Amino acid sequence: MFLKTYYPYPGFPPVSISGDKCRLKCRHCNSIYLKGMTPVSTSEKLIKVCKKLDENNAVGILLSGGYNKDGGLLNLERMLPAIKKIKKETKLIINIHPGLLSKNIADNLLVDFASLEIPSNFVIKNVFRLNKTIDDYVETYYNLKNAGIDVIPHVCVYSGDEHKLLENIEPPSAIVVIVFTPTKNTPMQNESAPEAKMIGKVIRNIKKMFSYSEISLGCMRPRDRCIRTEIEIEALKSGISRMELPSKKTIKYAKEKGYEIKRLGACCALPEKYEYLAEIK
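Above: the chain's sequence. Below: its structure in token form.
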């Protein structure tokens, strides 16, 4: 019985191909999280940063950034040649947060896997403030999948019925559960985070739907000391086998329950076939 734990720094850092720019300004983020990413808003910067990471034996990168008014990743299309160059000239594994994208871009996107959030229509309209629907995200899922890219769907827990968002998705190798986190200096900073029991319920329902898919508790979740470990242990009890940046108390609990801990220097959406490259001895 394994619990895979994930530590992205320093070997799998997030980079923003839009720098600190985001035209969408979602209500839950307001560009705050871009500040924690390495800014690489030109092809030259992206290539330079990636070659330096490769020289330092990094495992890979999370290619992310801000979004345009249509929900797509800013600058992605013009970065496609640079991404291909990085894949050809380095050993880095590339994970991408693509947002919405077309079949044409997916067919020309040379990455190893994609972390795609599947949001509800309510979240798309009221949090992302996009004139789109869940069908647009499902279409992106299949655009990526049909292009030969391993897609790891993400669902963010808000209301407790997020398992339903995956009803039109073919069984993936892994699913990442993230949790709405009230964040300072955003329009949603005073809203309440979901309770641990609600998060556990979502995980159990996803497990029923996809019994052969690994489920991970992702990095985006409340870190308040009073609820962090409660959420993590509830997730473990509910069926996850992966967790990014668990607390020491959670690791202690898992060991007491007979879990063998496997440490990986990557993001928690990493497909199993790449684990040998990221294992921390």
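The radius of gyration is 18 Å.
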